[in-house]
Design brief:
This protein is α/β, with parallel strands linked by helices. It has one domain (4-102, 148-236): 3-Layer(aba) Sandwich (Rossmann fold). It is 33% helix and 17% strand. The chain has helices at residues 23-26, 48-59, 104-115, 135-146, 163-177, 191-194, 217-227, 229-236, and strands at residues 4-8, 30-32, 37-41, 86-89, 96-100, 150-155, 182-187, 200-203, 209-211. Strand 6, helix 5 and strand 7 (182-187) form a beta-alpha-beta unit. The longest helix has 15 residues, at 163-177.
Length: 239
């Protein structure tokens, strides 16, 4: 069963400030976690990353990426959402990691700076600097070497992963969550990751709601495109 059981905010937040102007957040949140794997989907700007960042900050993780032990400055602004959300745990855990694809470069640079004083720091990341690995290799090095027991909050982890490596990542998720060692909260656009068995999917498009895999636009559009790419291309290029 998941460690984190619920995330909630006041029923409605009367504010004209971002991120409370996002439709999915305007009426407040009350998210139940009944699976060890939960996905958040929606168009860019729908609030997926904002929700994950706020949860990560409340967990004590660096909001730019990392765990409780990773302390470095980031130029990225933090939203006010973390100040109003409440987390319900059973049991409460403090281990885990927050990974956001867009700031992964900054995290890798931070590790290089730590390695100047302690070269052994890379032992926990595949034995060498993440900057000395391809983008996909560095992501998998993080996943396979640092993920063990805890809560893992991931913002678009597929960004650097080929379809084959997305399947490898799913196998890693299964190896950890199926024995109750880990819980995953993932924002994604990947129809491959979204098909993970027994995962819960929350859509932030047209307000916040739970959806089935085949109800997601990611599944429907990908399926339709693969079945008839010529039809899509004719439409796209008709102008």
């Amino acid at each position: 069963m998941p460690f984190l059981k619920n995330v909630r905010t006041p029923c409605s937040i009367k504010s004209n400030n971002y991120p409370f102007t996002i439709p999915a957040l305007a009426q407040g949140l009350n998210i139940d976690f009944t699976s060890n794997v939960t996905f958040f989907v929606g168009e860019n700007g729908s609030g997926k990353s904002t929700i994950l960042e706020a949860i990560a900050k409340r967990c004590g993780f660096n909001p730019s990426g990392g765990s409780r032990n990773h302390i470095y400055q980031s130029p990225e602004p933090e939203s006010d959402l973390s100040a109003v959300i409440k987390l319900s745990w059973m049991p409460k855990i403090t281990t885990g990691f927050f990974m956001r694809a867009e700031s992964f470069f900054n995290f890798a640079t931070y590790l290089d700076q730590l390695a100047e004083d302690d070269p052994n720091i890379f032992k926990a990341y595949g034995g060498k600097s993440l900057h000395q690995q391809s983008h996909g290799e560095s992501f998998l090095s993080l996943f396979t070497n640092r993920f063990n027991k805890g809560i893992y909050i991931l913002d678009e982890p597929e960004a650097a992963l080929s379809p084959q490596r997305q399947l490898s990542f799913m196998a890693l998720i299964h190896s950890l969550e199926s024995c109750g060692k880990a819980q995953f909260l993932i924002a994604t656009h990947s129809p491959i990751l979204l098909c993970y068995p027994n995962a819960i999917i929350y859509s932030l498009d047209n307000n916040f709601r739970k959806v089935g895999y085949q109800e997601t636009e990611h599944y429907k559009l990908t399926k339709e495109f693969l079945e008839s790419p010529d039809r899509f291309l004719r439409y796209l290029f008709s102008n």
